[in-house]
Amino acid sequence: MNSQFITSCDCFINLFSFSIFIVQFLSLLVGILISVAFVVLFERKLMASVQRRRGPNVVGYGLLQSFADALKVFLKETIVPSYANPSLFLLAPIFSFFCSLALWLVIPFESGAIMRDFHIGILYIFAISSLSVYGILFAGWSSNSKYAFLGGLRSAAQMISYEITIGCIFVCIILFSKSMHLGYIVEFQANLWYCIPLLIFWVIFFITALAETNRAPFDLPEAEAELVAGYNVEYSAMSFVLFFLSEYANIFFMSTLVSLLFLGGWYSPINLLCVDYLQSSSIFFLSLKIIFNLMLFVLVRAAYPRFRYDQLMRIGWKVFLPLTIALLYLESAVIFFMEYCSYMF
Fold first, then answer.
1. What is the pTM of this model?
2. What was the pLDDT predicted at 344?
3. Is the confidence at residue 8, as pLDDT, over 70?
4. What's the structural domain count of the chain?
């Protein structure tokens, strides 16, 4: 009797925990969708300001423009090409959007405010971001179009090339903080942000994030003059919207990740003064840093022209990767020397 009661209690607890997880995931989904809408509006307004034009200013004074565009696309018909693979064609945008959502499960927005507290958060992020390449490959191959297939191959080669550099930078941060937990990495930056001792890694990581999210000047997979529109040329309506949402969700995610890894996360800039009674931390400071990184994403798009594909690959393989590996060896040697000196003396 007692065993049956204990089993029923365990089932109830598991069901309750699963229900809480579903509510948290839906809240995260709604938050990301709303955030993406305002990120798109922010990009349009900032690009318009740089280019000396008005930007969105009609629908709700421009504030509702993203929601109006979403409603317009929602009313359109999803068209599947005649000779495409229907299952993979419809699965590809869903898979890409799912990967962009799954990345947020290990992101701490404040001390203790995290959906899944993984001690290998960086490894999880690296694994999920690697899987997102398959969604683009599925889209390019299943469309049965040469333009979409070439765009998918370009995007896959670009993302894989720059993921190696990102992996080396992750290793450098793990060596510096001795942890793969994002919350612990932020805690180690309470009095010294990593953008100061690891300035070169910060710059390389930001440029690599541009290439990883297919943003200008690394937006070769969507080079309109060469490939019509890249891997998503055959998509329309909601299937295209899922690719659009996954791209901007990844931009928002990369801005958050840069803020956590190099800009002190939720810690205030006042903490750099190392004065105890002035120290503070809040999600407000993390939000400001995310907005700052998003602004850099937009300003880079407005200021720089698109690279040629050979230039893009040469920067990734012949500049960033050797430089990152050399700095990784240098950092390892410095850390080993410091620990050896502390052990001896």
1. 0.89
2. 74
3. no
4. 2
Task: Give bridge partners of residue 188 from the DSSP assignment.
Answer: none
User: In a 10 Å sphere around its CB, with 0-12 CB exposed, 13-18 middle and 19+ buried, how is residue 143 labelled?
Assistant: buried
- For the stretch 122-169, pLDDT in tens is 989 988 988 888 888 899 899 888 888 888 888 888 888 898 999 999
Residues 42 and 187 occupy one common structural domain: no
Q: How confident is the model at residue 23 (pLDDT cuts 50, 70, 90)?
A: confident
Please state, in angstroms and as integers, the Cα–Cα distance from residue 234 to each residue in 10, 40, 97, 253, following that order.
Answer: 49, 23, 17, 26
Distance CA 163, CA 168 (A): 9
Q: What is the pLDDT of residues 241-275, one digit of tens each?
A: 888 888 899 999 999 999 999 998 888 887 776 66
Beta bridge partners of 113: 110
Residue 81: CB atoms within 10 Å: 15
Host H or E run for residue 25: helix 2-50
63 and 87 in a common domain: no
116, 158: one domain: yes
Of 75, 110, 135, which residue is a domain's last? 75
Mean pLDDT computed over every residue of the chain: 84
Q: Six-digit token pair at 140?
A: 């390019």
DSSP single-letter state for residue 316 = I
- Is residue 173 within 8 Å of 185, Cβ to Cβ? yes
Say how far apart CA 301 and CA 294 lie, in whole Å: 11
Coil, helix or strand for 110? strand
Rounded CA separation 166/160 (Å): 10
Q: Residue 237, by phi and psi: left (phi above 0), alpha (psi -120 to 50) or beta?
A: left
The amino acid at residue 159 is: M
CB 124 within 8 A of CB 164: no
Q: Put residue 81 in one of left, alpha, beta given phi > 0 → left and psi -120 to 50 → alpha.
A: beta
Range of the domain at 335: 76-344
